[in-house]
Amino acid sequence: MKRRAILLAGLLVAGLAHADAGVPVTASHAWIRVLPGNLPAGAYVVLHNDGAKPLALTGADTAAYGEAMLHESSSTGGVSRMRTIDALPIPAHGTRTLAPGGYHLMLMDAKHPVHPGAKIRITLKFDDGSTLPVDFLARPASALSDKD
Q1: Cα separation of 76 and 56, whole Å?
Q2: What is the pTM of this model?
Q3: Confidence at residue 146, expressed as pLDDT on a 0 to 100 scale
């Protein structure tokens, strides 16, 4: 019995130590621009890295969509382009913004209709193996920010 108590106490301490280590990244202003029909949605967020080491966002998962990809939009000479990227660096003690016209998550194949006002949980993945679940607010197609 004493041995079992010591084992359980050790597991509890190990779990608390892991929880304290946590992800140094926090998220704010998380929103999704919902387009009509089954068109892809764009997901935007501000990521803050409070850690002493740079991290990179490497992907995302969500139960609401079949696929989530990191993309970068750009415009040169009036021509808009979008490309898939493998990772998005977030500097130590820095911020990275995913916003319309720049970096964003492209959400493909909605598993059910997503309407403005809905909250969609997206789990962000980082290059150190950590993850961060974030609730994104669905906004209408006309939205330009999380405040529209």
Answers
A1: 26
A2: 0.82
A3: 85
